[in-house]
């Protein structure tokens, strides 16, 4: 069981130019890491996410691809731990399922092989609440033993969830075969500074904010009672660090925010924080041409096991997290 003292450590963040990655690099440095390697092929235009880190002497940026083992092997020499984030999510899977299967499954397999070859002590793998699936079967409390629901959900969402299930099992397999210590964190929908447009649920926040800035009423799909469960990016950066630091291994843990939120409530909150509570949400039917992540009603992603296993719980509620995100989008954050 590897507990990594981050003070003086060497950690690589694979997919480090991402929303979660850029925050994780900051958190690792704040906890005393001696070197943080950002390994990313920058295929999602992440340069701006890491521009503020590139002159830090403790940060090394490698423009590498997870599909190229010959690049990963030298890059992973002498590391204490890896946080693996590089992935396609549902919207990218919808555009390019081949790419999603390659990056999410073969890419992780390459990282696990590099860990074995270079005796990296611990891996944190970013999984997702997508492992519970989508559609009418998803409702109530989602705990780590909740099964996968595929019926009635778009293929891209199920392909994404299935790729994370494959990833989790590849980690378990590497633990059994080679003794690699790992923690899987099943993030719920992430939001925060450096937010992108790649996550279907986070579009409720960024598209609402964009509409309000144009002086338009924001749109809510359906009657707005459907819940979403978000987690603030800084809370996840802390979770990634704590998963490396804790002795826990061979385990999958939910990492979600303090509480779920109904979409209507979320859109109203964004309008209020953006100073336009007068712009009442407009309820619209779903657009059949767009991928939507639906559920069978109210659900919550329970994060009690993470507290028990690695001592983590979320600290930032939606109001505060949204305030920080909107400030960043307005250029003041
Ligand atoms: N954002 C969310 O709402 C959310 C929710 C649950 C789980 N997750 C998981 O968390 C992780 C991080 O999410 P995010 O939103 O911060 O990611 P992101 O979309 O911002 O970034 C992914 C990164 O992976 C990199 N990448 C893609 N293909 C690569 C390749 N072949 N080689 C090297 N790098 C490559 C991209 O350049 C990008 O920087 C992902 O694994 C994602 O599945 C995210």
Description:
The structure is a single chain. With 333 residues, this protein is α/β, with parallel strands linked by helices. It has a domain at 10-193 and 230-257 and 300-317: Rossmann fold (3-Layer(aba) Sandwich). Helices cover 39% and strands 18% of the residues. It has 11 helices and 15 strands. Helix 1 crosses helix 8, helix 5 runs parallel beside helix 6 (155-178) and helix 7 (203-213) crosses helix 9. The longest helix has 24 residues, at 155-178. The model has no long low-confidence stretch (mean pLDDT 96). The structure holds nicotinamide-adenine-dinucleotide. Nicotinamide-adenine-dinucleotide binds next to helix 1, helix 5, strand 5 and strand 8. Residues 11-249 form the NAD-dependent epimerase/dehydratase domain. It comes from Falsiroseomonas tokyonensis. This is NAD-dependent epimerase/dehydratase family protein.
Low-confidence stretches: none
Q: What Rg, in angstroms, do the CA atoms define?
A: 19 Å
**Ligand set:** nicotinamide-adenine-dinucleotide
Named CATH topology of one domain: Rossmann fold
Oligomeric status of the shown chains?
A: single chain
